Amino acid sequence: MAAVLALLDLLAGEGSANRFEAVVEEARRQGVTGADLRTVERIKRLALGIQARLERRQQWSAALAALVDTASDLASPHTVEDTLKIITRRARLLLGADVSWVTLPATDDGAFRLHSLDGHVTMLNTRLRLPEGAGLAAAVLAHRAPLWTSDYLTDESFRHAAELDEWIGAEGLHAVLAVPLSRGTAFAGSLHVADRSVRHFSVDEIALANMLAEIGGVALSRAVYLDETLAEMSALRDRLSRAEADLADARGLTEAQGALLALALDGCAPQLLVEECHVRLRAPVLLCGPHGTTIAAAGDLSEHGEAFARARKATGVLLDPAPVLLQDGIWSVPVLAGGHHLGVLYVQAGPALTADTAELLRYAARVVAVLLSLQEGRGPVDGQFRDELLEDLLISVPRPRDLLERRARRLGIGLDQPHVVVIARVEGGVQAHAVSRASTCARRLNGLQTTHESDIVLLLPGTDPGAAARTVHDELSSLPGGPPTVSGSGPVSDPGAVLHGYREAARCLDAMTALGATGTSASTHQLGFLGLLLSDHVDADRFIQSTIGAVLDYDAQRLTELIRTLDAYFDTGGSPTYAAEQLHVHPNTVARRLERIGELIGSDWQKPERALEIQLALRMSRIRRVLREHDESARGQDA
């Protein structure tokens, strides 16, 4: 009875098998024999059996828990390669095997390749390829069921492959288990685990490998779908990028077409339109008349002059609007208007044209045809009217005002509205091109343009002469020979005041030249106190307000003494200390006031050129204040 209790205690305490045997031996020593001894031995065997089943259940529970962890891990999105690595790693750990791998179909010819090996020690397996029908993978594919062998190399129940056998031998593998790896209803491949010793795989191990393969097959299906989706998304992004590039090209083509058409509708000279074609096509351009005479050219034609000459001689009357490659990379497009052949447009664009370039070239030829047709039908009458009107506004002998206003109204211009006068002076022998561009600019802004005393003069609507001068400067800056010098004055709102505005702008232009400011733009207002000297009508209020107006307004609003501090600062030679003594305040107070002045009129107010203007404005403001006080005192005495 004591032996039975001891066995039960060992069973409850999960004792080792040798301890169970020790209880039986102890019973023998104590004289237990016969039926009692057989009972003890039977109880021992039963206890060991129960313990073995308990251990098996524990192992199975642990394996199921690991399987659940594997399923959880595979539930996260992974690539196909990462999914296969997880499957092989977990398979090797679950079954306590030495090596694991997956075989997947290589091509449609039935061959397989090894993937995602785990636990291997040689490099012979690198992308190992199995021929059709060889290895356990082919047998699993044929039976769609798990297969295993206790000693792979000696088992002749399946077809061997020399390369796989070589690798199996190099790894020292013997026992191999293979289970099918499915993707839905389709066979994806097989999962293999192997040991470096001869062994038999238990039913539980085969079942675990099979369940892992089923879970892995689902994860593999999703990974394949994810990879395919990512590939499709990448392809879609590529197509989207190409579509965006095509859209950008289309927008660029539309913009170029709009710019060319706008120039033609503005009535520009052919030279300006050809220059725009040169910029848009990024190639030398030549426009010839119907008899081969040159109408306009743009770009560096020095290297291609002979080629263009040969192209002109070789070109007959072209009626097909499509670009034609002649020779030396020169393309020609006829300029056609209805049934009329107005000329040919030549472009040195290389041996091949992109679709957008070809379309732009065809469109440029049509726009040139529109421009030439308009010029042939209209002539220079409108331009002459505009030139003559501005010339009449600039002569010293005044014309009747009502006559000038009627002429301006016929051109769509109101001389009773604010206008500014702009004068442009160009160098480098590009006067004709500059006049053409200035004329186009004047038409676009609904103004007038003419040439007066070798300078280009424009009368443009607006109130800011500086902005108008910058606009004209930018319009003419791309011409060869350097940027122009442009001056502006105004505004003027009367036909008789245009001449005064022109004289102010002319003096401003001469002053800019004398000061070495050629190639820039400015107005009389922007020249500070120098503008007062150049102007026919001195606007002291405007000068004072633009120079120190912010400080005057600050004093008036907050009852401060910034202007008085500024006077004292300049009266004492720019010394804050002496200025503080003169004002009877602490030097720190003067320093704070000077900082505030810098915030109001700019930190560069102490620079010599600014300081001179500020001192002039202070003196003018002081004189105006004294005169105003004197005038008020005189009126008080008269009363």
* Secondary-structure class: alpha+beta
Mean pLDDT: 75
**Mind telling me which CATH architecture of the largest domain this is?**
2-Layer Sandwich
Q: Beta-strand level of the residues, as a percent range?
A: 5-15%
Let me know the CATH homologous superfamily of the largest domain.
Answer: GAF domain
Number-wise, the strands total: 16
Q: Report the oligomer.
A: single chain
Distance between the termini: 146 Å
What is the helix tally?
Answer: 21
Taken from the alpha-carbon principal axes, the silhouette is elongated
How many strands, which pairing sense, and closed or not: the largest β-sheet?
A: 6 strands, antiparallel
Rg result: 49 Å
What's the CATH C level of the largest domain?
A: Alpha Beta
Number of domains: 5
**CATH fold-level assignment of the largest domain:** Beta-Lactamase
Main-sheet strand order equals 3-2-1-6-5-4
Q: Provide the low-confidence segments as ranges.
A: 377-381, 531-538
What share of residues is helical?
55-70%
